[in-house]
Design brief:
single chain; 202 residues; mainly alpha; 72% helix
Length: 202
């Protein structure tokens, strides 16, 4: 039952920005990161921030479920996987919900600094979670899922590189400047191996 909840949470995570942005005039899904949806200027910012906290806690618990599932066969890697998902859930999502960004990048406050640190650490940990999952899947003999997870990990690395390049002034007029687009693509790619894992486990 809880796996179905996690599946729904991950799907909503990917879709809710489009709903939250509807009354937010001037918001661009292509150019603006999702975290801005939680700022004071966002009409439904409070909804998004509450959702981020709920989602983060859910994914942290999901990390524990994966830990218990693989602990007997892959104890060390199971601990690493749990740690990565826990840090992402709490470090990125929960902290982002409690400490929202401001609408403008140059409007730096204590809240935005905490948000920034949490997001960077959280995103990087989630980035490598599919790789750890892939290694576990290879070790337990589920090769087709292992290959799938590796592919999504490699694609995530590419999307993450494009996303980071968007902050470089040299690429402001390039496709790399579409930070909102690359962040959304990145989230889809990082979530995909776990969504597949849940579906195949139901």
């Amino acid at each position: 039952m809880f796996l179905i909840i996690v599946l729904c949470v991950m799907i909503v995570d990917l879709l809710i920005p489009f709903a939250i942005a509807l009354p937010y005039k001037g918001y661009s899904h292509l150019k603006t990161v999702m975290s801005v949806l939680g700022c004071k200027a966002s009409p439904l910012g409070w909804v998004y921030n509450i959702w981020m906290i709920i989602s983060g806690c859910t994914i942290a618990v999901f990390g524990y479920i994966l830990f218990t599932y693989y602990y007997n066969e892959q104890a060390g890697l199971a601990i690493v996987l749990f740690t990565l998902l826990f840090i992402y859930g709490i470090g990125d999502e929960v902290i982002s919900g409690i400490f929202p960004l401001n609408e403008k990048k140059d409007d730096v406050t204590v809240s935005t600094k905490i948000h920034g640190v949490g997001s960077v650490i959280g995103f990087i940990t989630l980035l490598f979670a599919p790789l750890i999952l892939a290694i576990i899947q290879f070790n337990v003999g589920v090769w087709y899922l292992g290959f799938s997870s590796v592919i999504f990990f490699l694609l995530s690395l590419i999307a993450f590189t494009f996303f980071v390049m968007g902050d470089n002034p040299k690429f402001q007029n390039k496709v790399f400047a579409l930070e909102g687009l690359w962040q959304r693509v990145l989230c889809c790619l990082m979530y995909a191996p776990f969504i597949i894992w849940i579906i195949t486990s139901l």
